[in-house]
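Could you join me in thinking about how sequence relates to backbone shape in a protein? We need material for that, and I hope you will provide a protein of your own picking. Label the sequence line and the structure token line clearly, so we can match residues to local backbone shapes. Would you write everything just below, so we can both look at the same thing?
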Amino acid sequence: MLKKAAGDGVNGGYSAKAGYGRGGKYGGGLYFNYRKNKVNWFGNYDHDYTLNPQVFTNYRAVQQGADYLETDTYSDRPHTPTTTQTARRGADFQIGRNTVLGVLGTFFDRNWYMEAVNSTTYSRNQLVESRLVMPNTETNHNRAFSGNVNLAHTFAKKQTLSLDLDYIRYNMKNPS
């Protein structure tokens, strides 16, 4: 007759969220853990979406000799969706009574987009000298991946030696 080890089995869960501020927001995620004998597999995945319209203003005035110079800038960003995804997957292997070998991989992806109409007014002595109106789009797509291999050995109750090997890669694109 085989006896099941304590802690063996599958567990997991999920999450869901939704909201509204100045724009819609929603997301969800899943996670799991599977342990059988001397192996433990685990992982999770999350996805989030937000829409956050933005308005930026900047006013500056300086006295330069007899002239009073003003710059008034306004940027309306009504469409700014952001999507973020994260994932993690790993395993731990009990390779000896006091030794564990682990592997872990993580992934991050953030995609942000913006459409804006920017306007700047230049004035001298409270008379408009020029006005600039410029549409602008911007995409920021950032990704990251990391991998880890680790080995831990426990010699005594408060004596552990850990070795880690990490790899990290970033890919950031921000054209404007």
Summary: Residues 9-57+81-114+138-173 form one domain. The radius of gyration is 27 Å. Strands lie at 9-20, 24-36, 39-51, 54-64, 67-79, 81-96, 99-124, 127-156, 159-173. The first strand starts at residue 9 and ends at 20.
